[in-house]
């Protein structure tokens, strides 16, 4: 049994998509940020931190999307989505795997300001402007990397692309896609993959973003 605890539109999509790339179909239990479902005693038995994703697999429960992705790649290496120790691309694989969290952290900070604070008066135009610039700067190395090749690793598609697929789609709620044409093209390539589409359809509607784009408010 494989059970994925998820919030549609969150980092849990990384895990769902990677499982789909491996031909694995998890049982999905969806939650919603802000409705208390992540704070219940039952969910805290799954993850005491009250966060998703959490993946029940191989007789244990794993948390943290990067750790889950790395575990799946190493325990199911026959799918060729990771780069194991000794592989010439191992170091690059690890760098991109964890750099995805640099991008995700900028997005998380913007989500807090633009989406989750209930009163617009609580939002800081200064912080939002700063985090938007940080996000744009963090995206530049990714955009440069996919300028001359289809995926982040020269050998082709891998789990690091899965890690970034969620982040780039979310980033375009805060930075204009037309300013990053190579990233927009890269995201289209990722979204065209059958496993991406399978996971996207299965996760249910996005419960985080209420609008397509969030402008930096005028302070």
UniProtKB/TrEMBL annotation:
It comes from the Bacteria. Residues 86-218 form the GST C-terminal domain. InterPro entries: Glutathione-S-Trfase_C-like, Glutathione-S-Trfase_C_sf, Glutathione_S-Trfase, Glutathione_S-Trfase_N, Thioredoxin-like_sf. Residues 1-80 form the GST N-terminal domain. Keywords: Transferase. GO terms for molecular function: transferase activity. It holds the Pfam family GST_N. CDD domains: GST_N_GTT1_like (cd03046). Gene3D superfamilies: 1.20.1050.10, Glutaredoxin. This is Glutathione S-transferase family protein.
